[in-house]
Design brief:
The chain is mainly alpha-helical. It has one domain. Helix content is 71%, strand content 2%. The chain has a two-stranded antiparallel ribbon. A hairpin with a 5-residue loop joins strand 1 and strand 2. Helix 2 runs parallel beside helix 7.
Length: 266
Amino acid sequence: MIRVEFEKQLRRLRTLVVLGLLVGFPAAITLVFKVGSTGGQHGGGGFVELARESGLNMAILVLDHMGPTVLLGVGAVLAGSVVAEEASWGTLGYMLVRPVGRGRLLASKLVVIAALTLLAVALASLVAVVAGLAVFGWQSVETPSGTMLSPGTALARVAMATPYLVWSLTGIMSIAFFVSTRSNSPLYAAATAFGLAVISEILDSFSAMGDARIVLPTHYWSAWQDLFASPADWDGVLKGTALQVPYVIVILAITFWSFRKRDILT
């Protein structure tokens, strides 16, 4: 059932568009830095000023810019459309006429969306590395703090940062998935999740919230950047990984429970 669902989702136009955008984005960013002005590279403004120093510096910059915007949109669209689009087309009720349990149907869709998201982000990361190395070469990586990392070490940490970026999205994607099971509109499900993420980001920027900010689902989204310190700082990554667990468990439990109660066939 998972194989059939995966093949079906992979043929969807929106899946192909998403994959195309994630391939094109790092290539476009690399091209912009290749043909753009070289002035002000060392202005101390983070990975932007250091992007041309190494192909892997370029890859890190791409991950930094994809995280809070592009990947959020990808995760929200994929998770928000997987059930709602079936309901809007009228095929969801037909699928449940067959001897397939609702829980099994939902689980298969959840596994496929998780795999597609990981595949999409991994593909984007791979293109970012390949494009960066092709244009700016295999040199040591300089971080904004002045730390120098060997190319091999930096590449390994890019490989670690990629799945963390995916996992950081799971709380918000779970919300999109829940709304998708309650709505016939994929757009509504994706917009709800995206809006909640934006609200979380805004609240996280208010220092008046104090320690309460650490429970916001987006609080540790940028913690992967600490992996490029020397030595790597795992504290934020571990906290960010743990933070998503209760969001995923609680929201998915509610999702499966409510989907079993939903009147779909009528």
